[in-house]
Amino acid sequence: MSEIVYLNGEFLPAEEARIPVLDRGFIFGDGVYEVIPVYSRRPFRAAEHFQRLQRSLDAVRIANPMTPAEWSRLIDEIVARNSGEDQSVYLQVTRGVAKRDHAFPKEAKQTVFVMSGPLVTPGADKVERGVAAVTTVDYRWLRCDVKSVSLLANCLLRQHAVDAGAEEVVMLRDGYLSEGSSSNVFVVRNGVLLATPKNHLVLPGITYDVVLELADATRLPVEVRPIPESEVRTADEIWLTSSTKEVLAVTTLDGKPVGSGKPGEVFRTLHAEFQTFKRKVMRAAA
Ligand code: PDD
User: Fold this and answer.
1) Atom 16 (ligand 1): residue with closest C-alpha?
2) Percent of the chain with pLDDT over 90
3) Is the whole model's pTM more than 0.90, yes or no?
4) Cα(29)–Cα(170) distance, rounded to whole angstroms?
5) At 73, which helix (H) or strand (E)?
6) For residue 1, pLDDT beyond 70
7) Is the C-alpha dihedral spanning 204, 206, 211, 213 positive or negative?
8) Which residue out of 38, 148, 183, 207 has the highest number of ligand 1 atoms within 8 Å of its CB and is therefore the one to mutate?
9) Centre of ligand 1 from the C-alpha of residue 106, in Å
10) Which residue's alpha carbon is at the smallest distance from atom 19 of ligand 1?
11) Which of 134, 143, 148, 176 is most exposed by smallest CB count within 10 Å?
12) How far apart are CA 180 and CA 144, in angstroms?
């Protein structure tokens, strides 16, 4: 069955969807997006994703073409029209089609695109063994809190990880931890979970919030503060979090073992909590 996507009011097979070449998303990367995980056909934390979408749209001064209720209906529809119990819904809003000029067009209608594919979360082997990461300098712009489709730097950074045989980069800016190319990064030291503050240097992750809620519920001590490079390099545990990775342990950093070189105890607890929480939320929504 071919994938059904939504483009500007129409549902159609992915290979038939077309956008004009002057779309500012294509020309300038002038748009924002969200990735929403769907478990058992139910979007996880949809309201939070719509809130972050609103925040990104406000930051780049694009009017939201839909209300949260309309977004919700659209996501349900795209999930229903595609196969698979667990899906990953991608939605994108660009500033629309206009003659090429950096300044905003006076009249342009937003382009709205939604697609859904299988949600591929890390398999049992990755969860058990953990993954490799490499450090890099974070050379992205200073509005990393905006979920912008201008992802050239993130693509280069991810490829840097792939070329090094690693899953992800762990980025450092001015000597402090920021995040991964498409994930947030947590550190555990002496039984304390360290989280980077939510500011303009990182994306405010929806999974990041879930992890902090679960840490609170399980009485895991948490410190939200800037994390210097030295604390990253001597961490007992390092985790990646995202809507598609969920919570994943980094077991080597720049080829050196992180802690014992195996996913740590705190990771195991939190990962199990995350799986239980997910099932509970989905059952409650059923
Ligand atoms: N990426 N930081 C960056 C730079 C990201 O791109 C993402 C998500 C995250 C984690 O956010 P969340 O927990 O809300 O997924 C952090 C998505 C999955 C992507 O671009 O595919």
Assistant:
1) 183
2) 97
3) yes
4) 24
5) helix 68-81
6) no
7) positive
8) 183
9) 31
10) 182
11) 143
12) 11
Using a 6 Å cutoff on CB, does residue 244 contact ligand 1?
A: yes
Burial of 141 (0-12, 13-18, 19+ CB in 10 A): exposed
Q: How far is residue 121 CA from its own chain's centroid?
A: 13
Contact 30 CB / ligand 1 (< 6 Å): no
Q: Taking the CA of residue 285 as centre, how many other CA atoms within 13 Å lie in the half-sphere pointing to its CB? A: 15
Closest-CA residue to 28 (of 100, 112, 91): 100
List the residue whose alpha carbon is closest to atom 11 of ligand 1: 205
Pocket-testing residue among 203, 213, 248, ligand 1, by greatest number of atoms within 8 A of Cβ: 203
Provide the pLDDT for residue 134: 99
For residue range 92-128, list pLDDT tens digits in order.
999 999 999 999 999 999 999 999 999 999 999 999 9
Residues noted as catalytic: 147
Q: Give the tens place of pLDDT for each residue, 155-191.
A: 999 999 999 999 999 999 999 999 999 999 999 999 9
Q: For tokens 């059904």, what's the residue?
A: 4
Q: In which residue are the tokens 């895991």 written? A: 220
**By alpha-carbon position, which residue is closest to atom 6 of ligand 1?**
182
Give the pLDDT confidence score for residue 286 in this predicted structure.
75
Could you tell me if the CB of 242 is within 6 A of ligand 1? yes
**Atom 1, ligand 1: residue with shortest CA distance:** 182
Predicted confidence (pLDDT) per residue in 204-251, tens digit: 999 999 999 999 999 999 999 999 999 999 999 999 999 999 999 999
DSSP-based three-state secondary structure for 178? coil
Assess whether the C-beta atom of 205 lies below 6 angstroms from ligand 1. Answer: yes
Distance CA 155, CA 140 (A): 11
